[in-house]
Amino acid sequence: MASPMLPFDDRGFAYGDGVFETVLLRDGEPVLWDYHRARLHRGCEVLGIQTPSDAALEATWQTAEQGEVFPQQEILKIVVTRGSGGRGYALPPTPSPRLLSRRTPFTPNSSRRYEGVRVCICDLRLAHQPRLAGIKHLNRLENVLARREWQRDDIAEGLLADQQDNLVEATSMNLFWQQNGAVWTPPLEQCGVAGTLREALLSRRHITVASLPLRELHRVEQLWVGNSVQGIWPVVALVTPNGQVQKRWPLPTNDVLQAAGHRLLGVASQHVVSLKQNNEKR
């Protein structure tokens, strides 16, 4: 059962010593659950935290009373910390990991899916730390600082590059682009978060990994940002933080990534159905 309280001496609160997942629920069932669970397991393994059992993780979304009606879409946030204790950075001799979760109603920003978005390039450069690359750990200060760089409501996301000026991701989404008819996404071996939508697209071979230097961004045919909660947003303009347009892209109509996205949604829907069937057999 998830704990509703976080003590002051919790290491996740004190040091960011933990991981989290943000999961889209449809009619009470998680979308891309296998990918979220796998990333959480991988993050706990990297940090050396005992991973909660699958039963404990599934209880975060299977605690409904019979006949309970859920909002059509919700966000489930799962947090796993190392727990309390330890002196300074030293680990407690017998850690007791803490699992917390919360569900909130969610309405996706569908206009951004169909009308496209404007993005800017953040000044902040991501540091390389291969041991933490890909996982969704609790220390997101780089993303927080990057998000402070713009205040305009008409800018949906900020693009992040690394110290070598290679594009990596957006502040809360992964990055995709089309070139010569194929769809690509940056490598994340040095930094960045391996999103579950990105992982699903990679596993189905809808996209390919390749580097994108910042200086080459203006040459790509199409650009998208996306995650498992909001889906895929086509980028129609690159702007400065104060809104000055630097580059425009046409709104895609019948392109490769949208087709891949539709196939992915179909797979995700089938996964939700299979979860319901498995639950009914228990």
Give descriptors for this structure.
single chain; 282 residues; alpha+beta; D-amino Acid Aminotransferase, Chain A, domain 1; D-amino Acid Aminotransferase, Chain A, domain 2; 2 domains; 9-stranded mixed sheet; 26% helix; globular; disordered C terminus; folate biosynthesis; Aminodeoxychorismate lyase
Protein architecture, described:
With 282 residues, the chain is of the alpha+beta class. It folds into 2 domains: 11-107, Aminotransferase class 4, branched-chain amino acid transferase, N-terminal domain (D-amino Acid Aminotransferase, Chain A, domain 1), CATH 3.30.470.10; 111-266, Alpha-Beta Barrel (D-amino Acid Aminotransferase, Chain A, domain 2), CATH 3.20.10.10. The chain is built from 7 helices and 13 strands. Strands 5, 6, 7, 8, 9, 10, 11, 12 and 13 form a 9-stranded mixed sheet that branches. β12 (231-239) and β13 (245-248) form a beta hairpin.
